[in-house]
Amino acid sequence: MKLYKKEGNVLQIISFPTENVEKGDYLLVEDADAGKALIAQVIDVQFAAVPGVLEELLRTLPDGGEPLQGEDIDPMEIAPHITYIQDASLLICKIRATLENEMLSPSSSWLPSRSQSTIKKLSIPMLMKLANVDGKLPIILGGTKDSSLLTIDASSIDGTLNIITGKKGCGKSHLSKLLMVNLVGYKATVVIFDLNGEYSSLGMTNDGKRNMYYDKIHTLTPAQNFKVALEQLHLNTVMGILVNALHLPGTSAREFRRLWRMLKEKGKLNMQELGEAIRDLNCNQHVRDALASRFHSFANSGFFTDSIGEAMLLDETLFRSKESGGAIVINLKNTSNIDRQIVVEYVLGKLVDSLSSWKLKAVFLFAEEAHLYLRETYWDDIVTRMRHYGIFTTFITNQPDTIQETIYRQADNIFLFNFTNEHDLDVVSRAARVDVETVRSIAHDLPPHHCLTLGRVVRDFPIVARVRALDIKTMGETRLFFNDKN
Amino acid sequence: MVIEQYTITNKYNFPQPNIDTILPQRFLEQSLNSLKQVQLHQPFQLNQAVQQFNITEIYQSNLQLKPQAIPLKPDHQETIIAAIDTSTIKIGETTTGIIVAVRGAATWRQNHAYKYTRLGPFIFHITEDNKNQLFNTLEHAYFCTTYGSMHQASPNLMQMPARLASLLERWLQTMLAKTINHGVLLFDGSLTAGTIDTPTQRLKEILNYARRSNTTVLAFSKATILRANGVLITEQLPNRDPPYLLETTGMQSKPPQTLLGDVYVARLNKANIAFRLDIDRETDFTQQVDAVQKLLGNDLYTQSYPETLRLSHILCTFTANEVLAIKHFITRKHGIQIINRPDMHKLLFGPFGHKGEIYS
Description:
heterodimer, A: alpha/beta, eleven-stranded mixed sheet, 24% strand, B: 13-stranded mixed sheet, two-stranded antiparallel sheet, globular
């Protein structure tokens, strides 16, 4: 390989067919005299502009369009050299860092010697070693192209905002499961908003047996094994549900607050008493109607109960997970849009309560297709306010444009799977830790189950890895009509 | 020093009963020998302005164009149209000589399809010390004589590429003249013999072989300096529909040059372009015209130039990519180090230093 050009932080390198360099590979451009080296990543492979190639191709086509048939008697065997030159490629590389005295710096301000620099491939393990990516809490994400393992440190997900995105069926949920079970393995508390009911089997192996996480996976299905009694609820949590999920106007909210306090003082805080109190409420008709309709939403959700024995408190599960780690799967499958919002509002309110009172240290929240249940104002809340309480969110989506731009800007890690649509890639490339060219070029060509990892977990060295298999019962597969017939 | 043995394929695509491969074999041997003579790691200078040598000739004549055009009618009787062209290019310079590459191409149209055989490239390191031995060995290999030494002083080093290409071209022409029956054989250039590159006897032999095979040789010149009444003969076209031939008279050659063909101006289609066409003068007029009509009926002739000959030229021409590949080959295979010496034209004249330009 030979250094050809440097423009800004982009290097152009001439490579020959035998050198076998592909997109995503890392190269070390070493200038021995300067005592420095550039670490650059190949983001595109193009044909080198070899003079005469056009003529070479054109002359094999006569006027008729059929390829010209003939025999080349080439006793000196020059033809392989012609092919060698003709197939030379131009590697477009992004400079990621400068290596000097075994220390990395993000600088690309110096110019290595074009004639004296040596260029060689930098293996992922070597890069990871230089970047100190591996830590005390390793999570093996998968295998890289050079058959090494991509291992990240669990602490690099701690306190961060993460996004897992890619088109349908490319392995997003699989990666989030991998992260979850590893976090649980390190005794972390994980909460999952499970839209399709695919995380409840995290505690089972593929053949249906219990795995090491079995006792740490707690699936809560609203209206089934996940119900709450009003008297166990804090007024703030209920107000959050009413105002944010059920859009209760301010005047009605004030009236509800008064009612709630009154019932609490009387020790009659239950659904039946609340219903009757609203019915008998002596106030403006519109206010009463507004409260009545919200009450019916409460009642219809099946999420609220008057029986304390039936109520399953989230607190209990959270505290159980606090000591030895655990995942609380909030199964939102078969839950209506309104009920989903009620449950999410409740869970988030509860988490903030528990975290603000230091009952919990921190929670890793995994939110799949969050736009379906998260109100707009919550996005900023999650990445700013809740982050300070200790809710570290990972958004999982196949529609990157449903996540607000502010989220991308603040994302610390992005796990990017294949996208073909340019618009989707444009959205993702708004992330502060990502450059547009890398995302556009590499993500576009990612095979299924391959993930481009960007951000803090890889010390800002984007790395492509095939996400490793998990011995966990798959539940997220699409149900197919023709499956049995095959 | 051990010389690596290369063999070349004895089988060619074009019909051939008794093709001898001594010349290509000698080309290869001499090529390898000459490259071995380059001292290991001897630097050679990249050719600053790559030039491809075309074999040209210069002679005087005093001729007239007959005003009456000979109309032509395409004859679609199935006839093999074959053409030959060679090319040579200087790859670079060493301290003792030059490195050149030579290649030849034979193209033919049969059953409405074009086919070709390309021979080469052969790469030579030519020095003042080896040029005579090199050339004479090659001449002797095929023609069993050393015309070069008989007819003229030692060739100039810079003429050697053209001489080698010419040798290969004549050999290819001989092969096709011997093997194609009832066909039309197209040469690039004229049928003027007695030049440095074309001894009269050699061209006569080629034409004889062709005649014996009932094949007519047509030689197309891409450019001519022949003038009638002071105007180029290819620019005195009558106001009539092509295709037609214009006959010339009064053509005289200066000894030792000999004209072995009758000279015509050929305009083969409506493109307003005409070419000098030499046709073997030992064939009678009717056969000459028939040959051109068979060409019209069996070949394409865009821009009034036969496609077979155009393809031959295109196939043997060295592209920049091939020049790079040859440099790569001699560096890897023969350890010749490539260096860039400063281009004096560029150095002295900056952006005005275009070495390849021709100024009038």
